[in-house]
Design brief:
Elements lengths: L3 H27 L4 E6 L13 E7 L3 H10 L7 E4 L13 E7 L8 H11 E12 L4 H17 L9 H7 L2 E10 L9 E9 L12
Parallel strand pairs: 1-2, 1-4, 2-3, 4-5
Antiparallel strand pairs: 5-7, 6-7
C-alpha cells in the first residue's frame, strides 16, 4: 500500500507539531531506548535522529510512500538502522529479540491493536520496555467528537482511529504503565489533540530507571 499524499501532509504537519513541542517530547522519550530497538510504524523517520544509546534500530513501515521518505532519514541516524517495509505481523523477526519497542503515532492506525500488541509481547526481550508516543481518546465532548468523526477520519488519514485509547490497550494486553505524561497538542485537529508519552513493561517487570507510576 502507498499513501503519497498523506505521507507528504504528514511530514508538513509533523514539522509544525514538532516545532510546537512534540519534537522535544519525542526526543526525550526516544532517548530512553536501549539495546536492540524495534520501531513499529516508523513513518517518515522522525524519531531516527534521537536514537543514541542503542545497538541498532529495526524500523518497520508498511506504507511504500512513507518508507521512501524514511529511507532518506536513515543517514541522519547515529546508529545502525535497518528499514523493513512490513507490518509487525508480516515481518519475520525472532521472538524476544528486542530490548526496546517504540510505538510512535501508530497504534491508532493498525487494523487490530490487540493483535499488534500481542506481537509486541512476543518480540520483547525479558526485561524489555515499550516506549509509546501516541494521541489518545479524550473525555467529554472531545470523546463524542472522536467517536462521531472516526468513521470518516480513518479514510482520509491512512487508517487513523482518533477514538482509540492506547493506554487501555496496553493494559488489556498484559502491560503495566510505569510512566505516563498526558499533554495536549493544540496546533492540530481537536480530535487528535490529546497525547501521551509513556513507558510500559510486562506486568511484574522491574521499572526502567527513573520511571514513576502513572
Amino acid at each position: 500500500m502507498a499513501h503519497p499524499v498523506f505521507a507528504a501532509w504528514h511530514d508538513r504537519s509533523m514539522d509544525q507539531l514538532d516545532a510546537a513541542g512534540l519534537g522535544e517530547r519525542r526526543e526525550r522519550l526516544v532517548a530512553r531506548a536501549r539495546g536492540r530497538v524495534l520501531e513499529i510504524g516508523a513513518g517518515t523517520g522522525r524519531n531516527l535522529p534521537f536514537y543514541r544509546h542503542v545497538a541498532e534500530v529495526v524500523a518497520l513501515e508498511p506504507d511504500a510512500a512513507m518508507t521512501k521518505r524514511l529511507q532518506l532519514r536513515v543517514e541522519q541516524a547515529s546508529v545502525p538502522v535497518t528499514v523493513v517495509q512490513s507490518t509487525i505481523a508480516q515481518a519475520r523477526l525472532a521472538p524476544h529479540s528486542f530490548d526496546t519497542i517504540v510505538c510512535s503515532l501508530v497504534l491508532c492506525s493498525v487494523e487490530d491493536v490487540d493483535a499488534t500488541l500481542r506481537h509486541v509481547d512476543d518480540l520483547l526481550a525479558d526485561g524489555g520496555h515499550v516506549l509509546a508516543l501516541e494521541h489518545v481518546r479524550g473525555t467529554g465532548w472531545r470523546a463524542r467528537m472522536q467517536d462521531a468523526s472516526t468513521p470518516v477520519w480513518r479514510h482520509v488519514a491512512a487508517g487513523c482511529r482518533a477514538n482509540r485509547d492506547p493506554i487501555d490497550a496496553l493494559r488489556r494486553n498484559g502491560f503495566a504503565i510505569t510512566d505516563c505524561d498526558r499533554f495536549m497538542m493544540n496546533r492540530t485537529f481537536p480530535i487528535v489533540a490529546p497525547h501521551i508519552s509513556a513507558v510500559a513493561v510486562r506486568k511484574g517487570t522491574r521499572q526502567l530507571q527513573g520511571d514513576t507510576n502513572e
